[in-house]
UniProtKB/TrEMBL annotation:
ATP binds at K94. PROSITE patterns: PROTEIN_KINASE_ATP (PS00107), PROTEIN_KINASE_DOM (PS50011), PROTEIN_KINASE_ST (PS00108). This is Protein kinase superfamily protein. Signal peptide: none annotated. Residues 365-400 are annotated as: Disordered. The lineage of its organism: Eukaryota, Viridiplantae, Streptophyta, Embryophyta, Tracheophyta.
Amino acid sequence: MTCFTVCFKKKASSPAKQTSAFRKACTAACAYICIKASNGNSERNKDEEHVKLFSYKELQLATENFNPRNKIGEGGFGSVYKGRLKDGSLAAVKVLSTESKQGVREFLTEIILMSGMEHENLVKLYGCCAERDHRILVYGYVENNSLAQTLLGDGYSNIQFSWKARTKICIGVARGLAFLHEEVRPHIVHRDIKTSNILLDKDLTPKISDFGLAKLFPDTLTHISTRVAGTLGYLAPEYAMQGQLSRKADIYSFGVLLLEIVSGRCNTNKRLPAEDRYLLERAWQLYEKRELVHLVDTALEDDFNVDEACRYLKIGLLCTQDMPKSRPAMSTVVKLLTGDMDLHEKKISKPGILSELMTVNSNTSYTSSSGWEKQDNSTSQNRSRTYTTMTSPSIYDRSN
């Protein structure tokens, strides 16, 4: 465990006190991070030194022994607690359940990908706990929870999502994804972009969270074939049906997210009339009729720029094109959103709509959203992670 000690500045607990699977995960994480450290990226290496290995006792004290009143979220992989660290800073302490079969894998992935990663629009990993069989991630605390809870949730929220606030959120998420897709080496595909994984700080600056499903993506590959994971409603058709993953899968998910932010509604709501249940289908219908303005959230009343709102909705449709090559790169999306690039020359065709390509099993299972979202079951039918049995491949249910 020498590498672990170097990378995290503190000696890990004895391997004899860890489960075999967890010990292997820690060893793999050490090896990977140390390999990165040998690649000559001095700026990234310097950042990595700041990732800390917390003791379990430290986190017990920070969260008042994981007091239920400090719980701010719960999902298929455990619970998230608000805590105050010894230096006085607030943290979100993500405790992975020991019963979770995928917990070790996701723990490993988040350490590898988030160690030393710094960007205004990504959550900040402070460190982790690797004592015995405890798997705990410690992130910077984000005051205003997730978009799923505050913008789309049925529960009470005193946040006023003005048009200016929404454009800031859309652009911020786009910039975070552009950083992952184009600036980080190897590139990173998130694989689970959705409202519950977009957190908001006190200034409503968005932070992309939950990297447990993320994949590293070398420059040399156009796509990789992998088991499908994510959330129905946000999955790109080529990925959901064929397991072909590329950065364009994230761009599709972002397009759906963009439509949700502008419209103020979930991508799927079966309580609505049949013609309105699926947001992407409804957006395309209104686009063909040149009536996209009718999709804008009525909560905005008249306090928004009509042309800009319609442009954002068109960008959402552009990001969800059926053919992956027709979707713009995230750096291009940022320019389109900020008005630094003209949208008029972009050809928008019918988006790829997964419901038209597959028949969802009537016994589709619903599981709770992951980690960061506050406990609120009022709209769980609209934003829960889902999976269904398909011939090739199956969508991987993260909660098992």
